[in-house]
Design a protein that fits this description.
The two termini are about 35 Å apart. The protein has helices spanning about 5-30, 35-80, 95-110, 130-140, 150-160, 165-185, 195-200, 220-225, 240-260, 260-270, 275-280, 290, 300-315, 345-350, 355-360, 385-390, 400-405, 405-415, 430-440, 445-450, 510, 520-525; strands at about 335-340, 340-345, 370, 375-380, 420-425, 460-465, 490, 495-500, 540-545. By secondary structure, it is mainly α.
Length: about 550
């Protein structure tokens, strides 16, 4: 039975029950029942009504979950495609499989740790404290690993309360942790610091926080720049796990030189050295983590214990019945220096390396383009495709160069993004950080493009987003209005409309996205156009809704 029909039926039943309540009052005038009897009957009816209300909410929640999943799948389809939106006509079995694959891939790339209110929850475990203490002592860490009720809570969280997430993370560990170990060894630092990446991002190289921190090591823009990570329209090295880990190591080493304690250095990574210094002053000059713990920001108070919990679980996951998930990451990777402009699709087509693997190994290239003509960059390639790459190395940049390096496309990217204007409708559960992560932009950019004074958004609200970074120079960044030079509002016998001048690369779908409530078909019908072809300079009318 259709869920919407179920809700309608249950709602009707609830209405009938409520009617019975009023009917009972009317009957009371006739049958002269006692007040006590009437109260009992009324209580029974109200209990039934409450039960029906619960049923309605249950089905309503299921309906929302179903609709939310459908919308999510369609959203990811449109984000992943450069062509037209999905319609009944082009919805095929192949598209259906593609939609599911896109959604699944997105989910796998954005595994998040289960969310618990660690300040109020207290987990219980069958493992005795003495076992936890003994295991921590056997880890022989260069970093002091304390044990108390707070630490115990975080150990239970990672080792018992989130087995699926940890299984996925541990699978990723097999690829990423050797990289991080080598990085920290190079700076003569404790290898245990590698566990911080689990706390920061659950080892997701594309992670974006609500505040706009990006990558596996969650660098803010200015801190990333300070530690030499390159960020421009083509490249964001915060998303490069190798370079970001190197920057994280240097930050932590600087913090250790300031505080002389690894736990305080770890705390400063989360809240900044300034907040740690403030906590030291408020504690009366004490310099141990648990001495200044009450004076640290709320999130940071849990960061140190979470570090111990993550590190413990990495060591003793087998004892808790967790098995690492098999993750499709190459066992061996080769690196090549790139001094020309190269597209990952060129590499994929000439070497046979799957494009998805190349993107996973090189997440820092925002448009799948390595701008090696501007400075030297690194290409990471699965080892088994090394010989094929060497064979084509001198000519690979010429393969379909006119297609992959179209001057118009390159100009749009250099102008600050690919110029694609998206109108996003806010859904239940959305926050700016989540939306920013989906489109790989920052929270501040979304706020600037939409004149938002705070991070508050409402369901149904339309947000303007420019996928790829900044709005192109030809588009106003702080207003949803269109330039007066390009658009003129007028009145006609057919109603209000605006006049739009077609630009190179425009399609009816792209134009329609700039006008909320207007579809590509609406524009075609309004102008009496049956063909989808447009030519630059053509003037078309956009109906105002």
């Amino acid at each position: 039975m259709n869920i919407r029909k179920i809700i309608a039926a249950v709602s009707a039943a609830a209405f009938i029950a409520l009617s019975f309540t009023y009917e009972a009052d009317a009957k009371a005038q006739k049958d002269k029942r006692t007040k006590k009897e009437l109260q009992a009957e009324n209580a029974s009816l109200m209990a039934e009504l409450d039960s029906l209300k619960i049923e309605i909410e249950k089905y309503r929640a299921e309906l929302y979950r179903t609709d939310s999943l459908t919308n999510e799948i369609l959203d990811y389809y449109e984000v992943s495609q450069e062509g037209d939106s999905l319609t009944i006509e082009n919805y095929t079995a192949e598209v259906s499989d593609s939609l599911l694959n896109i959604w699944y891939a997105h989910k796998m790339a954005n595994v998040e740790s289960e969310i618990f209110d660690m300040d109020s929850v207290k987990f219980q475990s069958n493992v005795p404290d003495s076992v936890y203490i003994n295991r921590i002592e056997q880890m022989n860490s260069f970093i002091t690993l304390p044990y108390n009720d707070i630490v115990k809570n975080h150990i239970i969280r990672y080792s018992e309360k989130m087995p699926k997430t940890m299984s996925h993370i541990l699978g990723l560990c097999e690829y990423y942790m050797p990289i991080f170990e080598e990085t920290f060894n190079r700076y003569d630092m404790p290898e245990e610091l590698k566990a911080m990446a689990i706390i920061e991002s659950a080892l997701n190289p594309l992670a974006v926080s609500r505040a706009g921190a990006k990558g596996m090591w969650q660098f803010m823009y200015h801190t990333a720049k300070l530690y030499g990570l390159h960020i421009d329209s083509f490249v964001d090295e915060r998303l490069d796990p190798v370079k970001a880990a190197d920057a994280a190591a240097r930050y932590l080493k600087d913090a250790y030189n300031i505080f002389g304690d690894w736990n305080l250095a770890i705390a400063s990574y989360n809240c900044g050295a300034g907040n740690v210094n403030k906590a030291i002053r408020r504690s009366g000059g004490k310099r141990a983590f648990w001495d200044i713990w009450p004076y640290l920001p709320r999130e940071t108070r849990g960061y140190g214990p979470a570090f111990v919990g993550a590190l413990y679980t990495m060591k003793y996951y087998r004892e808790h019945g967790i098995r690492p998930e098999a993750i499709q990451m190459p066992a061996h990777v080769d690196t090549f220096r790139i001094n020309k402009m190269v597209h990952l699709k060129q590499v994929s087509e000439l070497t046979g390396a799957p494009l998805d693997e190349l993107k996973n190994l090189n997440p820092q290239y925002r448009h799948e383009i390595i701008p090696g003509n501007e400075r030297e960059y690194i290409l990471r390639l699965p080892y088994k495709y090394t010989n094929a790459y060497i064979e084509h190395e001198d000519s690979i940049h010429l393969h379909k160069a006119d297609v992959y390096f179209n001057p118009t496309t390159i100009k749009k990217i250099k102008d600050g993004g690919d110029g694609e204007r998206i109108v996003y409708r806010v859904k239940k559960g959305d926050v700016l950080g989540k939306i920013a992560g989906r489109y790989r932009v920052s929270v501040n950019q979304i706020k600037r493009w939409n004149n938002l004074k705070s991070n508050n958004i409402r369901i149904g609200q339309r947000l303007i987003i420019y996928r790829g970074g900044k709005a192109p120079a030809s588009v106003p960044a702080k207003s949803e209005t269109v330039k007066k030079a390009e658009v003129k509002t007028t009145a006609s016998s057919n109603g209000d409309y605006v006049t739009y001048t077609v630009k190179t690369g425009d399609s009816f779908y792209q134009i329609a996205k700039n006008y909320p409530g207007v579809s590509a078909q609406d524009i075609m019908n309004f102008n009496g156009i049956s063909s989808s072809k447009l030519r630059p300079g053509m003037k078309i009318r956009i109906p105002v809704k």
